[in-house]
Amino acid sequence: MTTTTTMTASTTTSTHRPYLEALQRDGFVVVRSILTPSEVATLREAATEVTLRTRNGKWPYLRSVPKQFPPWPSTPPPSSEGGIWGVQHLMHPEMPHREKFIKTYFSPKILSVAEELLGLSASKKEATSNDATHEELLVMELFNLLVAPENIPFELRWHRDDISETVTPEQELQLLQQKSPEGKQSHAQYNLSLCPDASLIVVPGSHRRVRTDIERAADPYEATLPNQLIVRLEPGDAVFYDSNILHRGIYQPKVEGGEEIRLTLHGSLGLKDRSGNSDKVRATAVLQHGIGFWIDREDASLGAGERAEKMRANLISLGRGENVGYSLQG
Question: Is residue 324 one of the residues assigned to a domain?
């Protein structure tokens, strides 16, 4: 039986790091009620509207069935083929309800969890909040929306976000260590549910080891792997997870024209690379989604305070993303 940790957003203290301890041990941590019921209701209304807009071909940045990884087309497939399973770029200048999504992304509740997971000390956190001249260490990354396909179920294959399944065990271990040196992450990734959500399936602890023989031999869509765990979220809950944990998604379909049954905010925050290495650890993973082509627009200012603008500047410094390539194919 795998032991996992779930907490409320007020659990952590200045001397204890339960989120980080759970992430390092299990590869994920569930934080309960990070949003209030009122915040959930506001965001659910906004997310429903932008999902419908995207399904109707009025928003070009989407994730389409049956494609798992970018690039995706700019027009949605018909609902008879599943349609879309995601809406991209919630903070884009032309996104309806942009200000609501921005407020959530830069919420102190979410940023504080990310800071803990990225190993920022209490003194650095305090400086981040209070000193206008400090160096901002967080990087604005991605904020998207994951939704249910229409009419037909959709599954993601078992994968790690930034390591190909075709690598040898030796290469896999080397890459895992490279992506999280000494167990330290360069980013914090999360799913934040606005509806009950049991789509994410993980293998706890797999973020620190190579795949077993059983995992390597398994079908890409294997229904059950040893010790797998379904992450169950209620509205307002979030799961933060190591993106290179072995995981997949199973998305049940909604009835065409019916109520949305999955609205899950999918975000990531980066840690500024201070090594001077031009081969940025996160550049491909982030810029492959096309955010670099609009984030430096004059009308892309976030309106969320000085810290948010510094985080946006850190993202802009990664570049626009021409010829950056893709982390995975399919």
Answer: no
User: Could you tell me whether strands 238-241 and 187-193 are parallel, antiparallel, or unpaired per DSSP bridges?
Assistant: antiparallel
Contact 238, 110 (CB under 8 A): yes
How many other CB atoms sit within 10 Å of the CB of residue 241?
24
In what helix (H) or strand (E) does residue 28 lie, and over which residues does it extend? strand 28-32
Structural tokens at position 37: 């019921």
Segments forming the whole domain that contains residue 203: 18-119+136-318
Read off the CATH number of the domain in which 31 is found: 2.60.120.620
Q: How many domains does the structure of the chain reveal? A: 1
pLDDT, tens only, 150-176: 999 999 999 999 899 999 999 999 999
Q: How many Å apart are CA 18 and CA 164, to the nearest integer? A: 30
Fill in the DSSP letter of residue 195. S
pLDDT digits (tens, 9 = 90+) for 235-253: 999 999 999 999 999 999 9
Smallest CA-to-CA distance from 30 within 145, 157, 198 is with: 198
d(CA 18, CA 23): 8
C-alpha distance from residue 15 to each of 11, 50, 116, 123, 140 (Å): 12, 41, 11, 12, 27
Q: Tell me whether residue 8 is in a domain.
A: no
Amino acid found at 286 = V
Q: Is residue 127 part of a domain?
A: no
pLDDT digits (tens, 9 = 90+) for 50-104: 999 999 999 999 999 999 988 899 999 999 999 999 999 999 999 999 999 999 9
Chain mean position to CA 65: 19
Please give the sequence-ordered ranges of beta strands (E in DSSP) within 97-237, or none if there are none. Answer: 138-147, 154-155, 187-193, 200-202, 229-230
> Taken in order 326, 245, 147, 98, is the CA torsion positive or negative?
negative
Q: How far apart are CA 54 and CA 31, in angstroms?
A: 29
How many Å apart are CA 177 and CA 207, to the nearest integer?
10
Q: Is residue 197 part of a domain?
A: yes
Would you give the DSSP letter of residue 18? H
Q: Percentage of the chain surpassing pLDDT 70?
A: 86
